[in-house]
Amino acid sequence: MDRKLLIVAVAASVACWKGEASVGLCKADADCGANSTCNQSLHVCQYACAKLCATNEVCLGGACVAQGPEVKQVTAPATWSRRSQPVTVTAVVDGSSGPGIESATLQIAGQADITGTTADTGLVRTYTFLVAGAVQAAGAETPIDFTITAKDTGGQSSLQAALGHGQLLIDDSGPSLVSGVVVNGGVAVSGIKWFKAAASGNIDVQTSIQDAGSGVKQDTLTLVSAGRLDVGTPACAPGANAQTLTCHFSVPLSTVAAGSQRRIAFAVAGTDAAGNAVKTNTAALGIDGKAPTITFTTAYPVAGADCASDQSLYCGHDGSHFWRAGDGKYNLTFTVSDVYLAPDDQGSGADQAGSTCSIAGSALACTVTYDTATSSFTFPANFADATFSSGADGSGSVSVTAHARDAVGNDATPVVASVDVTRLKWMRSMIGKVDTFKGSPIATTQPVPQVVLAGSERDGAGPLVSLGPDGSVLWRPGHSEATTVSNNVAYSSATRRVYVLGDNATKLFAYAVGSTGTTGSYSCALDDGLGNLGAATGSPALIGVGAAERALVADSGLHRLWLFGGNPATSSCTSLTWTDDGGNWKTNVNPPTTDGALIYLGHDVSKLSSVTPNLVTVADAPSFAISINGPVSLATALFFANRSVPAQLFSYSSAFVQNWATSGTALADAVNVPVVVGTNYAFASPLSGDGHLHAFNKATGTEAWKWDPASTIGNVSAPAIGASQVIYFGSDSPTKQLVVLKVVADVPSAADHWGSAYKGSGTQKTVAPVIDTTVDGLTTEPVIDSTGVLYFATGTANAKVFALITDSTGPLAPVAGSTWPRVGYDNCNSSNTAFVCQ
Predict the structure, then answer these.
(1) Which CATH code is given to the segment(s) 427-805?
(2) Is pLDDT at 824 greater than 60 in this prediction?
(3) Could you give the CA distance from residue 127 to residue 101 in angstroms, rounded to a whole number?
(4) Backbone phi, then psi, for 380, in 5-degree steps?
(5) Does this chain's domain 295-422 share its CATH topology with 427-805?
């Protein structure tokens, strides 16, 4: 356009303003007068209230001239519709300024134009447009903008300002959950909340749901599983924005009845206002009204566990028994299942912290542990104080109970299991090695836990045997030295020396004991220096500690009491003294007893003497006119027996004044050395013939009771007494057995503990080779170690050593001056009442 035409157009435009405009061109508002502004496009001044032509007019030749029809009164639905439904839009088209209306068209970006229809014929007509819902993209719910234009019969279309506009509300997207479903409360198990079934009460299920289109239709919301799951109307409140609702649903705990259980998968259902369903969602909860089940499994220690690997040893761990005590490192196991057949196929599962256990009669803590690797529950096999009644072979059963519950608290029916238990820790056959065990075993913890026995050697390894707690052989000294062992062996746990009489009772041998065997030895001969050898009687006794330790030996051959000392490391007898009271001892000398200050011994058949340890003084009692048999027991008074038939038991003061003597025919034959317990009993066990164990009142000498009162039990060993004051002794008739007695109010009973006796099952238990575990002869005196294990051996050629687990916590603790709990006084066979064995 040339400059002249531009000026004409600008001038014409100025003329088209309705209202006055200032004359002249302007560049800024300052160039115009008051109440005027500069039109920066036309560079003319105009009033602030100036008005353009109508929407369907254009300015031509300085006048507003109508140009095409004007679209008025566009009407579209204000409610949302589905994509599957058409939408009707109407618009009024005004063509009164022109030659008439030819058509009207609805236009949507990206879609084909939609031609309107009308039944009107005038210059103002109402057109209808039928819009397919598919103009909305699938899955969308955003309003769709549209434009309506018209054309007159002169070919003029509606000006831009005269077009009609509107929006289509088409919703093809259902509501969606904002952040899933939250089940409030309950117990979480593997991501699922579980609840205990109940006749009343509800589960609160919460979700936030949103819809950016037609909006959530609240009254349609519900939870569905196989049908409706919730009850009532959900409580909803506005959420984080206007398009979101936070709703709470109520699911009855009675949905699953008591006695049933179920994991319930469900979804939130409902629609938006347009009818679109809530988008796919899933959730789950569990209601459990059914208890789990307990399955008890007993895995016994494998055969031979904790015993020495030796074909000559039978282990109480035979693959089908626990030990009575000491098996706390092994576990009992049970599983808890909460799975059943449909429809109750799944529950909340076992409460991993909710299982408990109990062992009948046990006061020990029973603690259950959950093993995640095996999904099982375990607790230790601690049976030491459980209620247990063993049979004649030492075996029986212990009752254990397992309790469990599921995660929501349904208690399983407790399961009671019977667990097989044995008192037989092990039995070792010594056939071909050592037989005819004599005296009492020694039980000590120094330098290592061990039990020491002595017998007759058969294989050239030595007559002394040390066995470990597992039955293994630790050491065997004495070959060609202590060839004939008589009665007890003595042991000093302070100096760690074993003292034994050998070489046909003509020598005392001493062996230094290390952790793995003997480390040195010496021997002292009973030799008067004139070529005469003595003959030791009974057992050595000990007096003194450390370097002052002396072994006391009674010599009936030379009629003396010897005190030997020495150093096994240098194999030498460093001290040798003796007494015969200036030659006044003429015949037998009995084994000595000492309280650490004085030594007591009978001699010359009917005399009793006290000897000072330095052998300076011998206090000889008057002639008793009785045949003193064996050592004297020191327990407040002096207790000893005679050799008469019938035999008698005596109590004398330390000044050799008689307190009492038994009378009548209670003791038909000579008896072992008495065993005295506290203030209650003095026991006398016959050597042969009588067939009873007799208990006498310690203060009066009257017989308190005897065992077995109804029958004869033959020869018996001297008894041993545990810390629980249960009495143990061997018998050889009518059945070879170990008798175990519990005495309450002067009434002995074997039924309280092991039945009548431990005598084996009478059957052979097979290992390789076959080992017979029955007691087949009169036993040695038993001994109890510090753990309550009782050791004894058979004194036959078919020599066996037994380790039996008692209910005692150890040996009866000796009380100086009042209690002599076994023949050797203590576990070391020391008859020194001042000596402390370890």
Answers:
(1) 2.130.10.10
(2) yes
(3) 11
(4) -65, 150
(5) no
Direct distance between the N- and C-terminal alpha carbons of the chain, in angstroms, rounded to an integer: 130
CB burial readout 796-827, b (16+ within 10 A) else e:
beebbbbbbbbbbebbbebeeebbbbbbbbbb
pLDDT in tens, 561-620: 998 888 887 778 877 888 998 899 999 999 898 888 888 989 998 888 889 887 777 887
The amino acid occupying position 122 is: G
Average pLDDT (261-289) is 97
Task: Tell which residue, 520, 534, 446, has the closest CA to residue 486.
Answer: 534
The sign of the torsion formed by the CA atoms of 373, 374, 377, 382 equals negative
Burial classification of residue 774, based on how many CB atoms lie within 10 Å of its CB (0-12 exposed, 13-18 middle, 19 or more buried): buried
Q: Which of 833, 803, 822 is nearest to 722 (CA)?
A: 822
CATH fold for domain 295-422: Immunoglobulin-like (2.60.40)
The superfamily CATH assigns to domain 70-171 is: Immunoglobulins (2.60.40.10)
Cβ(351)–Cβ(362) below 8 Å: no
- CA distance linking residue 740 with residue 759, whole number of Å: 11
The confidence score (pLDDT) of residue 486 equals 62
Spatial contact of 521 and 508, defined as CB atoms under 8 Å apart: no
H helical segments located in 67-144: none
How far apart CA 272 and CA 275 sit, in angstroms, is 5
Domain boundaries, the chain: 3-52, 70-171, 176-288, 295-422, 427-805
Whether 549 has a pLDDT exceeding 90, the answer reads no
690-718 pLDDT, tens digit each: 667 888 888 898 888 888 777 777 777 77
Phi, psi at residue 319, to the nearest 5°?
Answer: 95, -5
Fold of 176-288: Immunoglobulin-like (2.60.40)
DSSP string for 312-369: TEEES-SSS-EESSS-TTSEEEEEEE---STTS---S-B-TT--EEEETT--S----E
Identify which of 109, 63, 285 has the alpha carbon closest to the alpha carbon of residue 187.
285
Q: Is the pTM of this model over 0.70?
A: yes
Residue 343: asked if its preceding bond is cis (omega within 30°), the reply is yes
Find out whether 424 and 310 touch, Cβ atoms under 8 Å. no
